[in-house]
Amino acid sequence: MGRVIVTALLGLAGAVALAVLTPRHDPLALYGYRVSADAARARARELAGAWRWPAVQGPMVLGVTDSERSRWWFQRTGTTRDALNSPTNTTVYFRPARITFAPDGRLLRFRRAPESAGPPRDPDRARQQAEQALSTLTGAQRHRFRLTVDVGLEDQHRKYRWEWTRPDPAQLAWTVDVLVDAQGVREADLQGQLSGEWDRQFRAAESAEAVLAAPMVVLTMVGVLLVPIVALLAWLRRALVLRVAWVVLGLLLLLAVAQAATLPALRQWSAPERPGVPETLEFVLGHVVAAVLFAAAVAAGAFAASGDARWRTLRLIVAGRPWCKEVGRSLLGGLTVALPLAALGPALLATGIVTGWAFDLPLQALGSEHPGWWAVTQEPPLLVAGYFAFLLPFARRWQARRAWVAGVAALPGALIAVSAVPYDGDVAGGYLYALLLFLLAAWAWYAHGLLAVLVALWAFPALQLAATLSALPGDLSAEAAPVWWVMGALFGAGTLVSVFGRHDAPVEEAAEAIPLYVSEREQLRSDFSLARRAQQHMLPGGSPSLPGFEFAATCQPARDVGGDLYDYVPLHDGRLAVCVADVSGKGMPAALYMTLTKGAMVAGAQFQRGPAEIARRLNTHLYAAGRRRVFVTAALGALCPRTQCFEYVRAGHNPVLWRRAALGETRLLHAPGMGLGLAAPAVFDRALRAECVQLEPGDALVLYSDGVTEAMDADQQEFGEERLCRAVAAADGENADGVQQRILTDLQEFLGGAPPQDDLTLVVVRVSSTGGV
Amino acid sequence: MANAFSVERTMQDGLVVLSLDGFLDAHTAPQFEAAIQKEMDAGQVRMVVDCRKLTYISSAGLGVFMTFVEELREQGGDIKICGVIPKVLSVFEVLGFPELFDIVDDVPQAVQRFAEAPTRES
Rounded to 5 degrees, what are φ and ψ at A747? Predict the structure, then answer.
């Protein structure tokens, strides 16, 4: 319950942060002026026509934040929220051209094409065109600008720069950069820069760190994600590859559909730079890669760690049984954790703005030059998902040693370091972001399982994007609507499943529910643990009550399942029959035969006249049912509460131990008989002889299987009947439990830590000292 | 613990004698099984199992006897056991084997038993 509360609190904090930091606001109210989308579009078309630009594709209008200006606005307005989302500019995109307006409608920058059309032929004319662009941008302030850069021909164009350095350090220093090519002005840019201590460079600077980090990131990605994938594929059985393919395909479709919800906005922004590249290819590169990796993570998570609670929900889904409360809860947990994850970016940015060390964060989702590459290398969520889905379960499975696991647990430090570095500019900020992201993901994994981690890491970029889209002016909230719909639908589905789904399946049922073989060994292990439970249930639940007697019993199979059993059967004449039986052999075949024996014994046992008859009927059944290869030995006796007489038969079994406390002697009761199922009834009946002994108060009877007496220590010495007798004798005066305990303790001491090789069964009967009824 | 076990085959008076040596348990039982199967495939249905050097037998070992004895007796043959050491004999007796098998002292006695009562009703 505590976990749910913490997650709910995190979700609430995230939602509040998102709402506070990304509100929808009106630049008119903020600045006293506004550029409406229609006005911007109209003006841009006008300008494009006037400049005779090539035919343009239906323009998209977007308000973008400018982090430098953001901090400047913060200084002016004192409000982080405004600073974060203050749309300083409105950009109209005509792929690949674009025109940007300042908030008050002034033209800020324009770009006709990202590549040059060739070097300008006439330098004077080029200079003229550049100055014209300058005038267009600066208007009445033209005279304040001084030419500072005129480098001549460079890189297929001519570049000019004018600067206006203003005396007040709190004010922006403006620059105008113009690039001229053969067709005229290709690009003109009016930029304000914060001078002095506010001045920061936020380009993707080729710092030494960034250059070194990129290959490191790739290597880490390879190590964390690909190596385990390859190992997983090698380890899976062939029959499973089809199942895995099914899972991957299904999740691919799911993720593609979900990503498509944010597609319109994304597509527009990622395409403009490269007019020649087909959209579909970019989409494929960018999102399918991520989708495949996520799907593989799901498959691996489902198969890799069996029995672990955190992978249970994934296993249920993969097995085709998602309608479980647990699955719903895990889904809800993941979506809830996605909220603080989504708020992480804006929250850190806001903190940075306030404290002064601002840094750029992914709001990268808002645009990318190389979406495919970005998705694979720049995305910390993928690294983190890979860590939880692949590395952790494989580490636990293949190396139980704590030091190794601790080392893997410490690996996040390296992951975080590597994933943080590529962020532009401020490295410290990047580290903090990556660390907090990892911690939130770790909470989701710990509290709600792997499914929640994958859901959270998938959902939060979409949430962040949608929140930002809703906040920015321009007609973009409509673009965000699909995200809200998808998230809402998932949340609704999760709630439905949590409320109306089947109850949490216990681990055993979950193991039953899954028809897939991780490996045969896995399946066998789960089958065996089920069988062990079933067999335990076949044994008597507690001790029977019979006046004048106390009972204690134990049955410990050598393997998961065994061939021993003990039972108490009340007879119709008031006596209680006690028996210990032993199937030749160990393990599953013996256990199955034992089940048959139990069934045969219980059926009609209470109507038998005595132990001899029970044994005879058992032999008849087993002889008819079985092949001679397997046989059963049993010691069967009946206790009479009135006369304290013990009538018993020994069907090929170990003798019954009779401790006569009053006389201080121990006897082994060795009535003639042979094993059950070996011989035809005629032969068996001839061999079997029932005997009767008179019990005294304080006496003890021990029925045992040869797992006790034939237990061998390291020197290949057998425990033997003598030691057993001594143990029982030493427990004179104790109750039945005490006798049993003494035997087991002596046996353990004798074995000296070696595990018992055979099934171990004991039934102890103590005759009360006070006597009978 | 891998305990040594081996089966040696000889012929005596027209009968197959399988001499067991060592531990007969679940691990080594297949060896014994294979030896008997080989004889049966060769058409031999009368066998003497010489247990003079058999030091230990478990229920798996006992099971081997049970596996083949019925079939052999149906074909008019039998398995007769001889030379069992006391420790192993007690295991046989606890189970009631003497009711099912002829257990004698040595090979000549087993041969003689075959002459008198070649087979036994199961």
Answer: -65, -45
What is A132-193 written as a DSSP string? HHHHHHHGGGGGG-EEEEEEEEETTEEEEEEEE--S-TTSEEEEEEEEEETTEEEEEEEEEE
Cβ atoms < 10 Å from Cβ of A716: 9
Q: Is the CB of A678 inside 8 Å of chain B's CB atoms?
A: yes
Number of helices and strands (H, E) in chain B?
Answer: 5, 5
- Tell me if B99 and A686 make a contact (CB, 8 A cut-off): yes
The per-residue pLDDT of chain A, averaged, comes to 71
As for the ipTM of the complex, it is 0.78
Q: Which of A405-409, A606-610, A695-699 has the lowest mean pLDDT?
A: A405-409
Each as own residue / partner, the long-range contacts of residues A737-745 (CB below 8 Å, 24 or more positions apart, any chain) are A737/A550, A737/A552, A737/A764, A739/A552, A739/A700, A739/A702, A739/A764, A739/A766, A740/A552, A740/A553, A740/A554, A740/A764, A743/A702, A743/A708, A744/A554
| Closest chain B residue to A652, measured at CA | B95
Q: Are A422 and A210 in contact (CB under 8 A)?
A: yes
Percentage of chain A modeled with pLDDT above 70: 57
Any chain B CB within 8 A of the CB of A421? no
| Chain pair A-B, CB pairs under 8 angstroms | 59
Looking at residue A299, what is its pLDDT? 55
User: Helices A450-471 and A325-355, interaxial angle, to 10°?
Assistant: 50
- Nearest alpha carbon to residue A705 among A591, A605, A564: A564
Residue A313: name the closest of A303, A302, A297 by CA: A302
The verdict on a CB contact (< 8 Å) between A679 and B99 is yes
Q: How far is A679 from chain B (nearest CA, A)?
A: 7
**pLDDT tens digits, residue range A375-418?**
333 345 666 766 776 666 666 665 556 666 666 666 666 666 55
- Give the list of residues 6+ apart from residue A466 with CB closer than 8 angstroms, or none: A262, A480, A483, A484, A487
A390, A224 in Cβ contact below 8 A?
Answer: yes
Q: Does B4 touch chain A (CB under 8 A)?
A: no
Given a contact cutoff of 8 angstroms between Cβ atoms, the answer to whether A461 and A346 are in contact is no
Quick: pLDDT tens for A136-145: 888 777 888 8
Is pLDDT at A670 greater than 80 in this prediction?
yes
DSSP designation for A546: B
Instruction: Return the residue in A582, A683, A710 with the most chain B beta carbons within 10 A, the one to mutate for interface testing.
Output: A683
Residue A160 has pLDDT above 80, yes or no: yes
For residue B30, list chain A residues with Cβ-Cβ distance below 8 A: none
Cβ <8 Å between B100 and A633: no
Sheet holding A576-583, edge to edge: A564-570, A576-583, A632-639, A645-651, A691-694
pLDDT of residue A576: 92
Which tens digit of pLDDT belongs to each residue from A317-368? 655 667 888 888 888 999 999 999 888 877 776 666 566 544 444 333 333 3
Q: Which of A404-418, A443-457, A515-529, B30-44 reaches the highest mean pLDDT?
A: B30-44
Is pLDDT above 90 for A454? no
If we measure between CA atoms, which residue out of B92, B108, B91 comes closest to residue B100? Answer: B92
How many other CB atoms sit within 10 Å of the CB of residue A313?
A: 29
Question: In terms of CA atoms, which chain B residue is nearest residue A631?
Answer: B63
Indicate the residue type of B22. Answer: G
Query: Across chain B, which distance is largest between two alpha carbons, in Å?
Result: 42
Which residue did the predictor score with more confidence, A6 or A54? A6
Residues of chain A numbered 648-677 and touching chain B (CB < 8 Å): 651-655, 672-675
Q: Kindly determine whether residue A678 and residue B94, on different chains, have CB atoms separated by under 8 Å.
A: no
The phi-psi region of residue A192 (left if phi > 0; otherwise alpha if psi is between -120 and 50; otherwise beta) is: beta
**Taking a contact as any Cβ pair under 8 Å apart, which residues of chain B between 49 and 78 contact chain A?**
59-60, 62-63, 66-67, 69-70
